[in-house]
Amino acid sequence: MESINIYDNFLSNEDLQKCNEYISKGNWIYGHTSSSSTGFNTPFWHMDLIKCDFFTDYLKTKIEKKLNKKFKLNRVYANGQTYGQDGSFHQDDTKINTTTFCIYTTELPHNNDDLNGYLYVKIPNNSKYIACIEPLYNRGVSFPSYYYHKGAAFNRYFQNMRICIAFKLEEIPPVISNTPSTRLLL
Q1: Is 185 a member of any domain?
Q2: For residue 42, pLDDT beyond 80
Q3: Which of 81, 65, 63 shows the shortest CA–CA distance to 73?
Q4: Which of 10, 14, 19, 21 is exposed most, by the fewest CB atoms within 10 A?
Q5: Angle at 131 between CA 80 and CA 147, to 5 degrees
Q6: Given pLDDT bands bounded at 50, 70 and 90, which one contains residue 18?
Q7: What is the CATH number of the domain that holds 40?
Q8: Is residue 9 part of a domain?
Q9: Stretch 112-138: mean pLDDT, rounded?
């Protein structure tokens, strides 16, 4: 996959409700940072989801069906950012067979043009362009993990936490059989 893909209304209402219930009861830990090499790393909130089957099995399978690929799940977690907790540009992985899939679960008001909270993705081989993707409620976004990207917090006028569920995936190549087949003519 060499592109950024957006999937609005990615989850069913029931699945989205399960996500939000789990996250609202979860164990948020403060102090996570983007793994930036610049040294500009602002801490934000983090919740590990690797031990929850709903995320590791059910939602991973949903992602595999949407992307029409099989993946090994390397990590899954939620990031939470409040005003002033912008991430730094970083790569999730350097391998070309890796994908990052994000699901945004913060409900936004209808007039959300000035909230910020964007996902910024640098377009490789073109330093002039950065994609800016709104974190709309129930939006899925996939992109190659080696793309430099960062999540920005909402501005001070929107006081909810920006929540992104991030899946770090490694593609499992399809198995191609070298066994010759025999056709029977009847």
Answers
A1: no
A2: no
A3: 63
A4: 14
A5: 75
A6: very high
A7: 2.60.120.620
A8: yes
A9: 89
